[in-house]
Design goal:
One of its GO terms (cellular component) is mitochondrion. This is Mitochondrial fission process protein 1. With 172 residues, the protein is mainly α. It is built from five helices and no strands. Helix 2 packs antiparallel against helix 3, helix 3 runs antiparallel to helix 4 and helix 4 packs antiparallel against helix 5. 31% of the residues are buried.
């Protein structure tokens, strides 16, 4: 999730980017960190929380685009671009890529500790969880930047919005 603040036309903070609600997007990374310790159903539930966050943010950006567009020409396109761009960006940057990354970091650390230490399995599982949780802050910015580059190089070249370039409609 990008750290930038995005304010509406009225100047109020963006609920999905500037408040504690933003942390709901990290739920699946936390779930992946705890995968070795909790039932898999609980891990999948964290993906539900993150996906609900992504969906709500996309809907909010569509609503904001609808409020900004006063004339009829291009209104549907502006709303569609706002929703699709936000959903794809958030889906990749907040759910899919970080979840996969933390999953692989945790799996590798559990495997390597099993090969390199004589620690009992419960200790290795807790250490794996600690490693996963501690990795979260380090993966966010590189993933966000990579998703920006990916979308700027692909999807965002496909659309423009009424009176905007694609880069002006991206989530922040």
């Amino acid at each position: 999730m990008a750290q930038h603040q995005q304010h509406s036309a009225a100047g109020e903070p963006d609920l999905y980017r500037d408040t504690w609600v933003r942390y709901l997007g990290y739920a699946n990374e936390v779930g992946e960190s705890f995968r070795a310790l909790v039932p898999k159903a609980l891990v999948w539930a964290t993906y539900g929380v993150s996906t609900a966050y992504v969906t709500a943010d996309a809907a909010d950006k569509g609503r904001r685009a609808a409020q900004k567009t006063t004339d009829g020409s291009g209104r549907t396109a502006d709303i569609t671009v706002a929703v699709v761009d936000t959903f794809v960006w958030q889906g990749l940057a907040s759910v899919a890529i970080p979840g996969f990354t933390i999953n692989r970091i945790c799996a590798a650390s559990l495997y390597l500790m099993g090969r390199a230490t004589r620690w009992p399995l419960p200790v290795r599982k807790w250490a794996t969880t600690a490693i996963g949780l501690s990795a979260i802050p380090f993966i966010i910015t590189p993933i966000d930047r990579s998703v920006d580059f990916l979308l700027d190089s692909s999807l965002r070249k496909l659309y423009t919005t009424h009176d905007k370039k694609p880069e002006e409609s991206r989530p922040t």
